[in-house]
Amino acid sequence: MRQRNQSSSPSSTSGKRVRSDTSAGKRGRSVQARKPSARDAVASPGPSTPPADMSPEEQAAALMAKLDEFQALMPEFQHHDPNDIRRVAGVARFAADLVVPTIALVTSFPPAADRNLFDTEANQLRVRAFDALGPVVQRLNALAAGVQFTRHNGMGEAGSQSLDVFTWGKSYSKRPDAAALRPYVATMSKVVKKVLNRRKRKASPPPAPAQLPPGAQGLLASNFVPSKPAAEEVYPDYFNEALDRATKK
Question: I want to staple 202 with a disulfide (CB 3.0 to 4.6 A). Which of 99, 178, 219, 234 is the partner?
């Protein structure tokens, strides 16, 4: 077996490859000395699982801290101005097709470069950032939508169970020993009425089918499927079922 050089001289930090044999029971391997990058800051083997005993408030605080770290990775991050967001987006749509030929022009035609009207290096980085951050924006939009859906779904499940409690309470409140229960049932009844009113407002009769031309009724009538009543689409099925139980006479 070839002997390794075990020189005790201090390792150089000039960027040369250095050999390490310090790991126990493993063959030493060459590593390239480098500074940590932004990729290292965000790289992870996969999504981590939060501690089981983390409260919702602690989870929210941890997520906000992660968002602060995320924002810190963008030194030029700007909070959007609601008044300018559409106008800036409109500029970006055509600027993306304008900047690339401008870079080619300035880098290939010296008189244009001499005018110093265009910062080629900075604008090349802007084009790269625009392209590289596109998937990040898509992921963030999907993540934000998922967080909102998770919030709503959790409250929907809780609301469905509340309707079942209301169904039971409405029946039990008729008993002589239910005096303390009736105020709660009355409060919940007002909320249930609001839910029902919203479902009724959304429930509109399906539009009448368009009049078919003469001779086409026999051909197309069998393909007509009545649209589903809008009321069934206002809330998820599990909530509609609980609502029907709560309002059953």
Answer: 234
Cβ 208 vs Cβ 129: under 8 Å = no
Segment 221-230, tens digit of pLDDT? 444 445 555 4
CA–CA gap between residue 160 and residue 54 (Å, rounded)? 25
What tokens were used for 109?
Answer: 């035609």
- Rg of the chain over Cα atoms, rounded to whole angstroms, equals 33
Diameter of the chain measured on Cα atoms: 99
Looking at the DSSP bridge assignments, the partners of residue 102 are none
Count the Cβ atoms, other than its own, within 10 Å of residue 69.
11
Report residue 116 as tokens: 């110093």
CA distance 94 to 102: 13
How does pLDDT run across 132-179, given as a tens digit for each residue? 999 999 999 999 999 999 999 999 999 999 999 999 999 999 999 999
> What is the Cα–Cα distance from 143 to 149, expressed in whole angstroms?
10
The answer to whether the pTM exceeds 0.70 is: no
What is the rounded CA–CA span in Å between residue 188 and residue 190? 5
Per-residue DSSP letter, 30: E
Only one residue has tokens 């909530």, namely 239
Ramachandran assignment for 97, one of left (phi > 0), alpha (psi -120 to 50 degrees), beta (any other): alpha
Cα–Cα dist 27/101, whole Å: 52
Q: Which of 134, 136, 133 is nearest to 144 (CA)?
A: 136
Query: CB-based burial of residue 113 (10 Å sphere; 0-12 exposed, 13-18 middle, 19+ buried)?
Result: middle
